[in-house]
Structure formats: structure tokens, C-alpha cells
Amino acid sequence: MVALGVYVGRRVKNSEGFFVAGRGLGPALVFSTMLAANIGAGSTVGAAGLGYRDGLAAWWWVGAAAVGSLVQAFWVGPLMRREAESRGLKTLGDYLEARYSTTVRVIVAALIWVGTLAILAGQLIAMSTLLTVVAGLPKWAGCVLGGVVMTAYFSAGGLLSSAWVNLMQLAVLLVGFAVALPVALSNAGGWDAVVASVNAGAVNAPAPGAGFWSLWENGASGWKYLALLGPAFIISPGLLQKIFGARDDRAVRIGTGANALALLAFAFVPPVMGIIARATHPGLASEQLALPTLLMYDVPVAVGALGLAALFSAEVSTADAILFMLSTSLSQDLYRRFVNRAASDAQVLRVARGAAVLGGTLGVALALVAQTIIGTLSFFYSVLGVCLFVPVMAGLFVRRFRAAEALAAIGGGMLVMLALQLTVGPGGARGVTPALAGVLTSVAVAVAAHLVMRPSTPAGDGRGAR
């Protein structure tokens, strides 16, 4: 991964290549870089852990992301790509400033930095968990090793390096899981044997209730993940900036749409592997150990090695998408806009690479104190959805939606989301999670502010509206 990233990175000579790959990505590279970014620690180790704990309803962790990706592929994505190409935009921050104001850009950039570090920590925790099971490395060593790998190849060439390395990672990932799942299921005695073993329970793992086999909802898992993950996967800065690098709308529709279909199918794989791990290893100290343990002990060595390589590739591929958000936000949204307006292209490129190193370092530091993968990822997706869903969607489809309404929506949504997060916890109350409450509040505040202010002229030059 490092070697390929550095090799491809030699072709990147300016910020256009680093940020948007020269706007030349075709359907295949859009598909590979999107899918590789979307299948990470949460979609593998985290989803398998949810399957181990909650059963089939864990499908919604990845399935909800697939639903959001479909909306992005055929509705939001092509519109945003055209906006980026026509205005020469390189980041989502560029769009927010052009459509609203500098204030909106700065506030969103700051909030995204905080949330993005949380998801980066989640990926690094997963890498360290994997390396703990395989090699007995302490958590700090696994976090540092994963951080060095992702930072090295991404900082070399940005989106272009990432796209090509993601293609290699995706091949390893898909082959690894395609081989490991049927072998693990066969070695466990088949699906009927797995169901019987789980239902029988064990001394250190009581038998689950009937809801364990429901696809709709059980425990903390289920359809409610649509509110947490759906909006985030429509308007994620890292994913939209990959779309900015597509060469045309066709590449967006085919590449991102194929990514969504692949996610719908892949969503079953980690939960099923988690359920198999519950049958063969009941009572694990942590559900996060389910997938690494299964690949380490329940399949032949060659298959396990391939599966573990797939797992590591999945985690690193998502981590580089996060570094992409961090580096472009700091260099383009903050440095060039506020610190050095006269910065040359070479200076911006150096800052972007330095920001990737800084982001990787801070991510490692946060991973050392964070506890769980799903917990850190849930916080990130909550912040992302509440901050960006209304500004991006209203900016595209409501012509006279202005900066004041966007700021009110962000403020109201974040206050409600954080209040619920701190009082009732991430699970929410009566089926309403902090993320869902935050997004609904953001929409309600935006509508109220828009009606009260009744703008008489379009925001900006109106080109950002549809």
C-alpha cells in the first residue's frame, strides 16, 4: 500500500491533483475509492460485533449507508459534481462559502475536524484490535503502526494515490471476505448448527431472545441506523470530494451507484460472521474481538491470513478517506482562505501534506484514549448529519436559502443532539436517537427561519440553487 501510494504520488505536482485527482476519475476508480472508503472499521469489525451482540438487525449499520449512497449516486452527487466543475471547487468548504458565507464555511470546518478525528480514532482502534489478536501487540503499538501506514501513502499523492491504493485494497477485501465467510460457516457446521448453538447459549453467554433473528430491529441495532447513517452518507465531505474528482456525471452515477449495490450485499457479511463467532466463541470479553477471533482461530491459516489482510485493508482504506477530509479542510478551507490568501499552489500542497501528518498524529492520540469503535463512529456520523444535511441539501434545492438560515439550522440541531447525547445517552429515548433528533430539529429550525426571514433576493448569485 505504501509503495503504490508513493509511486502514484510522484505524478501529483499541484493541489488540483492532490485534492480532486485532476477531475479525471472514471467509473471504475470512483467505484473502488467510494466502496473502499465506505467499508472500514465500522463496516467490518464494528458490524460483526453488532451481529455478535444483536443478531441480524446489525445489517442496518451498512445497509443504511447503502441507502444514503443511492441518494448520493442518482440525485445529490451529479449536482454537486457539476457545481464543483463549473466553479472550480476543490472542497465542500469551497461550496459552502460560495453558496452561503465565510462564517458557514469556518463553523462547519471546525465541527467537521472534531467529528472527523473521532472516526479516524475508530479506524485505528480497529487496526490495533486486529494486531492485538494476531500478533499480541499492545493497543498503542497497533494504533501507531496503522497511523504510519495510512499517513505515508496518502500524504504522497492525496486523492490520486488514495484512488489507486483503494483499488488494490478493494480487491484484497472482496476476495478475502468472499473466501472466509463460506469456509467459516462450513467449519461451524453450517447455518442450522450455528443457529442451534447460539439459541442453546452457554455458561458465559446466555441464549438470545427471538429478536436476535429479526432483520428489522433488536437491541441498539436496526432500522434506526437510517437516521444516523443515511444523511451522513449523502453529504459526507470525504465522499463528495471524491465525487468532485469524477470526470463526468456518468462516472458518478455508475461508480457511486455500483458502490451502493455492493454495500447492500456486503451488509450481510460482517453480521453473519459475528453470529458465527458467537456460536464458536461465546462470551468473548468484547464483541469487537468477534471478527478477528473468527479469522484467527476458526478457518485454515491461509484463509485466515487472507481474511485478516482484507480486514486491515478495509480499515486503512477508510482511514485515508478521513485524512483526505482533514488535510483538504485545513489547507484549503483554513490556510489558503484565512492564513495566507496569497499562498502559491506549491505552498498549499505542502500544507495539505503536513495537515495529513498532523491529522494522523492527532487520530492516534485520540485512539489511545477512546474505548469503542461503534461509539466513536456514531459520534462522528451524528455531527456530520446534523451539521451538513440541511446546508448542503437546501443549498442545492432551495434557491433563497441564506447563510442565516443555515447557521440557525446547524446551531439548533447541534444543541439538541448534544443535549440528548449527554442526558439520555447515544441510544436516545423512545426510539429517537440524538442523531435523529438533531437532524429533525435542524430541518424544523431551517424551515421556521426561512419562513420568518422571507428573503426577497436569492442568496449569493443563485447559481448554487436548483
Please, could you describe this protein's structure?
There is one protein chain. This protein starts with a helix and ends in a 13-residue tail after the last helix. Mean pLDDT is 85; it is low at 457-466. A two-stranded antiparallel ribbon has the order 1-2. It has 466 residues and is mainly α. Helix 1 crosses helix 8 (139-187) and helix 5 runs antiparallel to helix 12 (249-266). The protein has one domain (2-372): Sodium/glucose cotransporter, CATH 1.20.1730. It contains 19 helices and 2 strands.
Q: Strand order, main sheet: write it out.
A: 1-2
CATH level-four homologous superfamily name:
Sodium/glucose cotransporter
Largest sheet geometry: 2 strands, antiparallel
Radius of gyration based on Cα positions: 22 Å
* Helix content, binned percent: over 70%
Order of helices and strands: HHHHHHHHHEEHHHHHHHHHH
- According to CATH, what is the topology? Sodium/glucose cotransporter
Give the DSSP E fraction (strand runs of 2 or more residues). under 5%
Q: Would you count the extended β strands for me?
A: 2
- In DSSP terms (H or I, runs of 4 or more residues), the helix count works out at 19
Tally of individual domains:
1
Mean pLDDT over the full residue set: 85
Structural class per helix/strand content? mainly alpha
Proper CATH architecture: Up-down Bundle
Shape type: globular
How far is the first residue's CA from the last residue's CA?
A: 41 Å
Low-confidence stretches: 457-466
CATH top level? Answer: Mainly Alpha
